[in-house]
Design a protein that fits this description.
The protein is α/β, with parallel strands linked by helices. Helices cover 34% and strands 25% of the residues. 46% of the residues are buried.
């Protein structure tokens, strides 16, 4: 399969998104030194609306739509996303062509005066942009004051440093990619805060039918990371996962088996349903669907019905 004449990467304009796009550009440049690869920065609606939570303005798809518009118009050939931001059902004509080797998928506590969640005093303000994190924190630490926190990573850390929060919770991967790993006071165990589906992984989207682009991206694809992400996305898809639903899914492969954990919670954290399954990583969607059914049977159905 001949390579395309060039590859244009659509990316959000945040520092983290541009780091991710540049990372993919550098990987492609090493593979194909003579192939021109450019980055097209795009401001999405999710980047423009910063005074309301994602759950109230339409969810994570707000970070993706304008990039897909660029793909559809032929202005870009691929879009680089944080996998956790990609809606569980892609529009017709689009596909995830590659999922890169995953960074640490866990959540991180960022704080100046406190070394752990347990060390935070009662009523301490903890910032997060995620209903998933909020529900799990409320369940485990009901004495804390969990508050919304929007903006890019640098903006959120600046709000912490101005004293607006005692601590904030962010993804380990995003902090590491921006050179801010030194700000992490504690990595949060998945038993305390189970990660979002796809967290820590980069996903590259393109139009269906672009066999030349898919072939160029194939060496970037990591099969083990992809199996975990596909299983996690299957859980979320089967449960109608969106920013309006506190839902988590996390897969790990060890000794040839895929261990998949899932969680559905009420936003106030008073009801939390957990489940776990292990199986063959060769059929990750089936594992995800099975775990989703198990969660429904354990009580997730009632939580989801109350949120619909």
């Amino acid at each position: 399969m001949p390579l395309p004449d060039r590859i244009v990467i659509a990316s959000r304009k945040s520092r983290l998104a541009l780091w991710q796009a540049e990372h993919v550009r550098e990987r492609l440049a090493r593979l194909y030194p003579r192939l021109p690869v450019e980055i097209l920065g795009i401001t999405t609606r999710g980047d423009q609306i910063l005074d309301r939570s994602l759950a109230k303005i339409g969810g994570k798809g707000l970070f993706v739509k304008e990039l897909e518009d660029a793909l559809a118009a032929g202005a870009a050939d691929v879009a680089v996303h944080s996998a956790k931001d990609v809606p569980m059902n892609l529009p017709p004509g689009f596909a995830l062509a590659a999922i890169l080797a995953r960074e640490d998928p866990r959540d991180a506590l960022v704080a100046n005066a406190y070394a752990s969640l347990e060390a935070l005093p009662a009523a301490a303000a903890v910032g997060t942009s995620s209903l998933r994190r909020e529900a799990q924190l409320r369940s485990r630490f009901p004495q804390l004051d969990i508050r919304p926190l929007r903006g890019n990573v640098d903006t959120r850390v600046a709000k912490l440093d101005r004293g607006e929060y005692a601590a904030i919770v962010l993804a380990v991967a995003g902090l590491a990619r921006l050179g801010l790993a030194g700000r992490i006071r504690a990595v949060i165990d998945p038993d305390v805060s189970l990660p979002a589906a796809g967290q820590g992984a980069l996903a590259i989207e393109c139009r269906v039918g672009r066999a030349d682009v898919a072939a160029a991206l194939a060496p970037l694809h990591d099969a083990a990371s992809a199996a975990c992400v596909r299983a996690e996305r299957a859980v979320s898809r089967a449960l109608g996962g969106s920013c309006q639903v506190p839902l988590a899914a996390y897969g790990e492969i060890a000794a040839g088996r895929l261990r998949l954990r899932g969680l559905v919670a009420s936003p106030d954290g008073r009801r939390v349903v957990r489940g776990e399954i292990a199986g063959d990583p060769a059929d990750p969607e089936a594992l995800g669907a099975t775990l989703a059914e198990d969660l429904r049977g354990r009580g997730a159905e009632e939580i989801l019905a109350a949120l619909s």
